[in-house]
Records
---
Amino acid sequence: MPWNDEFECMPLEEMQKFQLAKLKETVNWVMERVPFYRKKMEEAGVKADDLKSVADIRKLPFTVKNDLRDNYPFGLCAVPMNEVVRIHCSSGTTGKPITGPYTADDIDQWAECMARDLWAAGLRKGDIVQNAYGMGLFTGGLGFHQGATKIGCAVVPTSSGMTERQIMLMRDFGATALFSTPSYALTIAERAEEMGMPVKDMPLRVGCFGAEPWSEAMRDEIERKMGIMAMNTYGLTELGGPGMAFECEARNGLHINEDHFLVEIIDPVTFEPVSDGQRGEMVLTAIQRRAMPLIRFRTKDITTLTRERCSCGRTLVRMDRITGRTDDMLIINGVNVFPSQVESLLSEFNDEIVLQYLLVVRKKKHLDELIIRVEGKKEVFEAGPGKVTHVEKKITEHIKGVAGVGVTVELVEPKGLVRSEGKALRVVDERPK
Ligand code: DLL
């Protein structure tokens, strides 16, 4: 039985009626309250009453990541600040983060979506869950926390890092579920073996993983090493965080909470819809959120949809696992990083470097490693190795502080990086695909 069978098993026709009503409500909501949307809708010559079916969503304009940047921090917020009870953030394309404000009701909806997700993964009251998603501005930590709390699980909010302590607590508390990025799960599994306390020998039964791309091969590896079921969860800050889509026991795609999120798959070049089963960019509209409901947000994530019946009985449409992105966003251990953002942070050190750089992404054991090679100025090298190390350290700390991702900065001698003769090669991703 699903967590909420009324919505999770709703017949399509009824769901579409519900979606249309919520969509119209949301369009009115943002048109009345967000000047950005009022202008966009007026330019497109469309209003809520023009929407006669959910397919008419195509008449509405898109929202893109840069719209969030241009309206930083709260230009897209549709409620006064005294209605906002939480603000999360993730990296934007420049130094400015993406802000995600919530009303109290938005938080409740989020907890509901996460409860459906975790319930489908088999979590119940009585489970002890170790929540190793980053706890803080990142939506992973608190999103999973609220969902598991709603079900009645005992949550251990370890946050990420301090792996040996994670393992000790996992064993001592008898955790039955783990929440983390899939890459961190593998790190935990490996470290636990090295410590002589393999996860396999613990009561851990299930893991709920997401926030970064992972493959079926990685799922097999996690399941084998930990002796658990590994379930996939998808979401993004702009739409409120994790819990947008989740796997059920059939593990044949991720059910989308479509009473909350209207999903479209478009051709990223022509912007035309593609048919079910065809790959394209996922576009999402939040139809129940109130603090910052985005209309037709282009996620840049590539996937397919299917409406084929699922053996679990849920009627919610399913998306395939994410197979790529249409932009250059890198996901480093679950943290979104844009090369353009790194560039703008590097440019703040113009006295010591020239803006020639190369980002190298590698796997170090199971975790991602981001190495930034950037050319130092002649004077820095002339001042000796102490100065070089000092500059490297200064840039490392700055990027870590702003982008929230650990990096290794390596200063390269002037003219040490290959100059491009066409498009600059800025990223070398050496991670196995
Ligand atoms: O990563 C929310 C989240 C937290 C999802 C915990 C699942 C678990 P952002 O930091 O805004 O939000 O990053 C969103 O991460 O557009 C995808 O490119 C990628 N992503 C998220 N989940 C998955 C997944 C959170 N299951 C971006 N598979 C998205 C592949 C994922 N990619």
---
Amino acid sequence: MEAIFLAGGFGTRLKPLTYTRAKPLLPILNKPMILYLIDSLPSEVDRVILAVNYKKEQIEKCFSKYDCGREIIINEEPEPLGTGGAVKFAEKYLGDRFFVLNSDIISSINLQDMIRFHERNKATATISLWPVDNVSEFGVAEVGEDGRITGFVEKPKPEDAPSNLINAGAYLLESEVLDYIETGRLVSMEKEIFPQIISNTGRFYGYKFEGYWIDIGRIKSYLYVNQFLLKEKGLDKIIGEDSNVKGDIVNSILGRNVNVGRNTVIKSSVIFDNVSIDDNVTIENSVIGENCRIKENVYINNAVIGDNETIMDGYEIIDTTIWTQPIPEGYPKKQIGNVIGE
Ligand code: GTP
């Protein structure tokens, strides 16, 4: 069976890291996020389709170096087609039943169990559901006793919410769903297709799961997911190959070929590949992009430093983003869409 990963977004909320890389390639515990997700697919999935657009070449390059043990198809949309349009555009690669997955959600969902749930219900579509406290920020599902979804209520007041369950971004669909999607235009699966499946088939189900669900939309959640998974593995740090560390690394991840000087402390942060950090530096709750140079006596807290930046001696960088290079051509000025939580 197939799994399509929606991997074509610009990831504007993660700029400047996404000025220079496709969001699915952001490292999670030093491994591109998309590889992390592919490795957690159930064995039933033998073909993976990546619905791509922005920085497709980088994604191709990543897969030319890794063997995931599954067939990988990189399907480039001529333009972003949205969650429904991207699936329709991959129709020729799809069989009778397939997963549609966001490539920026890390969760404890058991997709094998979701297949069994879908089969038991003879569902046309099953979507994953996750409980939240803050219902008023999301589309909340109306779910019957038997797990059948009858609709969604957008951003309800807590007292009006039909449940506390939101669309968690993993879909298991029968191929008949493709008939509802028009070819060649921007289509939202959530807004345009799901309501039709609910009203026409009545076989639209919600699969609840527990554990964790982290939507890596923003820098804060990107840092959080790395720390969360580090803890899950019982580790305090990960230091990549060819790195040379003289200072203290706490609750942090360092990429390959990272040099850390004496009396330097790195805490709750992610440092990408080929970064050089001099003596007497403190970095906390921050992300440092590839090929950066951080000179002596610098203090960085709650900041993001884009790739290839140099921070000069003695600077204090607090609650800010550093990007001094031209913004890549074609990069949107603001967020285009928001699939989850719409
Ligand atoms: P922001 O700009 O920060 O909102 O990020 P984003 O562009 O990734 O959008 P969002 O987080 O809403 O997207 C959720 C998932 O859908 C991500 O995995 C995106 O890569 C993917 N995605 C969003 N729009 C499209 C699209 O038009 N085509 C494809 N193939 N994937 C998309």
---
Amino acid sequence: MRVLHVAAEVFPLAKTGGLADVVAALPVAQAQQGADVRLLLPGLPSVMDGVQHARPVIDIGSCFGALRVRLLLARMPGSALPVYVLDAPYLYRRSGSPYGNHAGEEWPDNLQRFALLGWVAAHLAADDADLRWHAEVVHAHDWHAALACAHVADHPASEVRSVFTIHNMAFQGLFPLHDWPLLGLASRHMSPAGLEFHGQLSFMKAGLQYAHRVTTVSPTYAREIATPEFGFGLDGAVRSRGADVTGILNGIDAEIWNPATDAAIAERYDLARPQGKHACRRALQAELGLAADERSLLLAVISRLSAQKGLDLLLAALPQLVAAGVQLVVQGGGDASLEAAFRMAQEAHPGRVHVHIGYDEARAHRTIAGADAIAIPSRFEPCGLTQMYGLRYGTLPIARRVGGLADTVRDAATTLGNGFVFDEATPMALAAAVLRAARLRAQDPAAWQTLQQRGMAADQAWAGAARQYLQLYRDAAGRPGTSLTGGGAGGAGGAR
Ligand code: ADP
């Protein structure tokens, strides 16, 4: 099975969130299971600089507003996985995130930047770009890659199958409808059964409507996005795809996130040698200037600071938690008002609250290893990775029962508990869960240890999810596709 994964980011070359971790680990796990897997990425500066042994495949010439576009084939650092890179300096060579500038403003030409990505992906599948390799399955991740699914569906001779994975329904790639001519797609797709979305054009819909299969990153989120509460206006489109939409829970990279071998942490530990975690805890308190307090619950947050993550609930609950002796370490960035509020919280609670605004991988490892618990009070959470990192490091997740959190965290009060779960998105419900954790840790260390051991022993590696995706590709290939040239897969019985 020849599989092309298409995405805007991949760890360690470019990362803004969990998407990058998935795109780094899933293809490698699939390759280990015998699939012939390659990546396609935009040539962001960090990607151009980070890949190895790059050589030109084809000179594409001028398109999507760029004068020079070339396709390169290189290797990923570390895994050596083959990676196609779109070298289009005019579109991708800028400093900032994959999506915008340092001030957080999106690039004004994102439509062209990601239209190019999907278009080239479809050509790679159609044996039109690299004469030595073509994909049987195009696996497009998030809206950035979604146009690949429309192009694949549009090609009359194509036997290629496309899979679209939604990593976050909140980000849909919406652009003015009058920019349609820039897309390079036939105008018959410019309808509500195609890419049109309330007077705008939606990249997300290209994946939702045209992919042979649509997946998201946890079973619970797959159900949630079919409801108005979580569907961000696309719940109807999700429902119309019926059983074509499924959830496959993300794994974690069990080599990068392994306390037994983690070079970033003060002392390595595992189930057989759990003492190392105490050393990590002391080292973290010392590093961050927190009181060397053995009894307090040391709570961590590693997160984008956005409304999605529910961290305003934590801010509201903080005075009560600090009064109860909780220590808090926050590492994150994003929303300016949340950044400012957390900075103020640090000033208000010296020695009890530490806030680091910024992105730092090694520091994230030290924090997760040193903390007792990790809070993820998200309003919605497609999968969430930090609760899984927490489980692996004996750092108990305190999570809202939503999306992938509901699929991975089980409350301490249940037979197979591995953390603490709450339902309401309120400061009170969050505070109650944190205080429950603090009490259990202080009053029943043996029960606490049992929870830790359960999490640390769990298999969260990618192998299982990789197998499920490969099976999904086979299912998609075994089912005859319907020509989409009539204009989109609209209704319940719509194509594929
Ligand atoms: P999302 O993709 O919605 O941001 P996830 O939990 O799926 O949330 O993935 C977030 C990823 O980004 C995790 O690997 C987490 O460790 C990492 N991360 C988030 N913020 C930071 C930060 N400030 N420093 C280091 N890593 C971070």
